[in-house]
Amino acid sequence: MKDIKFGDRVIGDDMPVFVIAEAGVNHNGSLKLAKRLIDAAHSAGADAVKFQSFKAERIITRSAPSAQYHLRATKGKETWYKLLKRLEISDSGHYELLDYCKKKGIYFLSTPYDEESAEFLRRMPVLAFKIASTDLNNLPLLRLVASYNKPIFLATGMSSIDEIRESVECVRGAGNGQLVLFQCTANYPPAIADANLNVISALRERFNTLVGYSDHLASRQAAIAAVAKGICAYEVHFTEDRGLPGPDHRASLEYSGLRRIIRDIRMTQLLLGSARKRVTPSESQTRIVARKSLVASRNIKEGEALGRHNLGIKRPGTGLPPKYFYFLLGKRINRAVKKDELILLKDVKGNGRKEA
């Protein structure tokens, strides 16, 4: 599971979680709104903002039935084809958004839904490709994108483990090892019980790959749990207003929610810290005052033998730690010691006895 270079960032298990703010089609066909979404993603602290690249006639038939979440959004008044046609971004619009992202200092990403759109994004160029769950089994598209030798974020919604295996083999067979699999549940929003965050560990172990999470729950709890499971990247839909018309607004975070969830991700990763157990700098003072040392439990005369009757264990922890208690039993003190005074190794003489 090697790290992936992404611009001036590195994506990997020991790196800060790479956060993708999914604008998707929530621009509603307006470049002005798309730019406001870019502003919001940057302000919230996202690393990248992602859109969707397609031409409706290349990805859907005019009579294709709508998904349930599309029907809810359009109330059945518009076909899926017409809906997608309205949400296309022109070629010039792509370049305008890319330039705006560069100006703002946030990475531009987009999901291609057809080979022509993938080729267009390659020429722009983009730094990486996100492949949606809908195209996980689209091996021709995967093979083409893998040939670009750029990082691929591959969503795994609606997929069996065998389908994921075929897709991973397709990408790697094209010579591209820069792969991040995204656990994803392709409903908008899914039921909490369908999030299946334990799949994150299963994907990592089965395919020896980096793993991210595409959060269609738009849930702070899900984001925190996913980070705790060890994701290296996180994606969530966001919108200016959940009440806007369109297929994805209702399952998206508004700006304030996006800020909170990114803050939670950063805080969770700080809380997880390192797997190396050590005394942290912040514990050093507490360790001194809270740990205990060997002390005289009463006044002890010079030459007196140490035993349970005169050897105690009390704070602070600036002397011999309690583990030396049995070692000192029976040893004779070589100076007079007052009650509660620390007893050090230099204060004893002679052979003692050890007790387990």
Describe the structure.
The protein contains 13 helices and 14 strands. The protein has 356 residues and is an alpha/beta fold. It has two domains: 10-272, TIM Barrel (Alpha-Beta Barrel); 281-349, Type Iii Antifreeze Protein Isoform Hplc 12 (Alpha-Beta Complex), CATH 3.90.1210.10. The chain has an eight-stranded parallel β-sheet with strand order 5-4-3-10-9-8-7-6. A two-stranded antiparallel sheet has the order 1-2. Strand 8, helix 9 (199-207) and strand 9 (210-215) form a beta-alpha-beta unit. Helix 1 runs parallel beside helix 11 (255-272) and helix 7 packs parallel to helix 8. The longest helix is centred in the C-terminal third of the chain and has 18 residues, at 255-272.
Primary descriptors:
single chain; 356 residues; alpha/beta; TIM Barrel; Type Iii Antifreeze Protein Isoform Hplc 12; eight-stranded parallel sheet; two-stranded antiparallel ribbon; 13 helices; 14 strands; 17% strand; disordered C terminus
